[in-house]
Amino acid sequence: MLPEINYWAVILATLSSMVVGAIWYTPKVFGNYWMKKSGVEMTGKASDAFGPMVTTVIVSFITAWVLAGASFIAWHFYGGGFLWSSIATAIVLWAGFTAARFITHDAFDKRPSGLTMLNIAHELVTLVVMAVIIGVWPPA
What we know:
The chain has about 140 residues and is an all-alpha fold. The chain has one domain (about 5-40, about 45-135). Helix content is about 80%, strand content about 0%. The protein contains five helices and no strands.
């Protein structure tokens, strides 16, 4: 079985990750803490952000696409509402892959635990927002 995917929802979910990141990492929210703990210094040059932004769009599209496919499979297998299947799938995938991998890598990199928690919380919010978008706009 190939999962049915609503690509408009995937595109919107991809864009939502940019919005969540822009809010999350703004200096007035968590940006100053993130820059201090990660050792990132903002130069103010747009050219410095170009590569990371392109990477973020590509990776966010892949994440939204996989989430949409996994949500469809979970919904098809378990039944119930598509929205709740999407949200549950996002949380399970976040816990099993994203959070677990961040914690492992950050422990070996000796990153501050506060930075790890900040980043995995950001990923959870990003995935839940994506799941809501995908979940309210299921495939036709």
